[in-house]
Amino acid sequence: MNLFAGHDLSQFVEVGGADWNIVDDYVESTSGTGTGFLVTRGAYGNVQLQAEFWTSPDANSGIFMRCPSAD
After folding, report:
1. Cα–Cα distances in Å, from 23 out to 6, 9, 58, 61?
2. Rounded distance, CA 22 to CA 25, Å?
């Protein structure tokens, strides 16, 4: 199962003030207020993660796994 197939964020809940967009086939947050997260709607056991991740030098960001819900 692909969590993100390049066309929608239906498998995620948006938490916080980030402005999430799909550009071409990737997810991008270019603005917003405060922090923002994409939290999966489901819980998952063992997974394989393949990601390409770019950020600006002054960003405080990353990919978090197996964290409690931010609700």
Report:
1. 9, 12, 22, 19
2. 7
Which tokens is 34 given? 């405060």
Sign for the CA dihedral angle at 41, 50, 67, 28 comes to negative
Question: Tokens at residue 51, please?
Answer: 């990601």
What's the DSSP call for residue 40?
E
Residue 50 phi, psi (nearest 5):
-125, 120
How far is Cα 5 from Cα 11, in angstroms, rounded to an integer? 10
- Do residues 39 and 8 make contact, with C-beta atoms less than 8 angstroms apart? no
Q: Mean pLDDT score of the chain, rounded to an integer?
A: 83
> Considering the entire predicted model, what is its pTM?
0.76
pLDDT in tens, 2-52: 788 888 899 999 988 888 999 988 898 877 667 788 999 888 888 888 888
